[in-house]
Every structure is written in structure tokens, then in C-alpha cells.
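User: C-alpha cells for this one?
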Amino acid sequence: MTLIVALRYQHGVVIACDSRVTYGLAPLMREEPRKIESLGNNIAIMGAGLIGGVDRVINNLKSSFESFKSLTLMEVVEKCEDVLWAFYQKHKERFEEEDTEFPTLVVASKDKIYRVFQTGFAEEEKNYCSEGSGRPYGEYILRQQHKPDMNEKQAKELAVYTVEQTSRIDPNVGGEICLAVVDHDGFRMMASTEVADILESLTEMASAPEKEIQKIVGEIVEKRRWINAVFQKKFGFELFAQNEFAVSEVQKGCKSETDFTSKITALALLIDGMNVSELDKQLGTHPSGSINILETFLKETLPNFEPAIVTNLRDLMVLRSKKMPIHEDDPRLIQVILKWGNRIPPNWSSLWTQALAKYRESLIEITRLLSNEVSEG
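Assistant:
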């Protein structure tokens, strides 16, 4: 499971999860419909990590409480700690050899939420939590939008929105969304039709440029993930650092000069957020600047290097470093905007779409170079 979300509202807890399963470092995924389990009809439980391990742990817990008609949350949490710790001790070396994510659990009653870690330690989350590979993005969204006094409808909408929005940012998250509630009436699963209705009610009437932006950003996220996976396998480190704020910011539409300034700054964070120290370690010469270091590294390690990779990146950093408003005595900034076929002043929405497309072009070219290496290897 790649994202679990649990959050408190006025009279209970809502829990949601996606259904996408990933395999190791290779970019292989599939949808595998899951359901949020209940224990004693008053507690919700869900696991993240290797799907086979999660199933075994939860089945073990369900068997342990089979004869119980009602359970306290602490009884379940303590048993989860014991079961996960025993599972960890037995399988620790195998998980390390396969470099696979170890199971963790999210457990919720009508008024409390706990995360249970692989080493058998549980931690209470006061208002909300997320778990799984999409956790950084889920936490970011919940931190911005959760309110303890939300009603049930608002809580369901936020839980579904968090999973759906994270799926736009993190390609490991996606597929059918499962939703449940725990309140004074106990555990209740929501029908898939209700989830569909919530998704429909959340759908914004996006303009054509906004839809294009979302498509480009989705491809950017996927390319960065794939490049990181191959870099890890080939060179022993990931090229790009995660930055959930920047990814969330760049997927939004651009309507004004102020919007453009904010978004090009976020895009620059993605461009500049590379593992420069690891790149530099493998170089014979040591240039300064992240883009110069990347250019030297690609030239030295990958054949058929295309200058357009770094040309695009440098153009984008010019837009960031010079910012707006445009000054007529700033020739570098004017040169980039005119080179892309724009007038002065530009249409900010179009310029932003172009900027994203230029970054995508660079990632596509890096992917092509690495694909040749993988196929030859």
C-alpha cells in the first residue's frame, strides 16, 4: 500500500487508502483493490509496505481477536506492537536483502489514531497521519487543510482529496480509493459509489491550460522517479531530492505575473535539488554550480550526451534568477523569452506551460540516455 490517510473530525475518525502496489527499485506497478479492515467492529486497521507482509500481519491480528466481540484500542495497539516486532525479527534480513519496504500499521478508534512501526513501537497521532511512500505529500496536504472541528462530510472529502491529489504528485500512489469511518456507531466502510461522488464533487472545472499543466507535471514526476531508480542501481545514489512543496506548487495553474514568479521559483527548487555531492565525487574535474556539475557528470558517464539537456535548465534558471517584472536592460531574460517565441511582456500562462515543457524535455533526454545504458547493460 502506498498511501494511508487517517484524520480526526468532530465525532470520529476517517481513514482512506489507495490501491497501487509497487515492486522494488524497478518502475513496475499494478492496481490491487484493497479494503480497510476492522477489528471488533469498532477499530479500523490498515498497513503500508510489502503487500504480502501486510496481509500476513493483519491476518495474524484478526485471528488473535476472532473470539472478541469488543476490543479496546490499547489492546489492539499492544498486540500490533508484539506481532510487528515478531515479524520484524523473523524477516529483517530478507527485507534488507531485497531492499523492500517493511510493513507499518495505522490503527484508529473513534477518537484516537496510532501508527505502529516495524520495531514494535506505537506512536499516537493527535489529529491526523499518513503512511506509505506518499507520506511526505499526504502530510503536506493535511498540514495545510486539516481542522479538528470538521464535520464528517468535510473529513471524508479531505481524506479522499489527499489521496487523489497525492496520486497526481507521486506516481506510486493511485487506483481505487477505499474509505471508512469509525465513530460512536462503530466501523463503517463507505461504498465505492460514495467515493466516486466525493471525487466528482471535488473536481475543479479546469481550463485547457490547467489540464495540460497537470499532464506535464505528472510526466515530470514519473521521469524523476524513473531516473532516481536507475541512478540508484547504476551509480549508488538518487539524482533528485524529494521536494513535496515544490511539486505541489508547480502543478497549479498560472494566471498572473505574480503566479509565474512563485511557480518558477518552485521549479528552480526541483532543478537545483540534485545530489551534487555524489555527482562531484565521481568527477575528474570539479566545476561549480549544480547544472555545470550535472553536465560534466553526464558527459563523462553517458555517451551521446545532448547539450539541450542543460540548455533548457540554464534557461529556466535565468527566468528564476532574474525574476519579474521584466526590465529592458536585462538582455539574458529577454533573450530566453524571445527564444521561446514569446512577446514582451509574455502571456504568463503560456510561458509557465512552456517552462514546464522545457524541464520535461530535459528529463526525457536524460531518460533516453539512461535507457540506452540499461538496454546495453
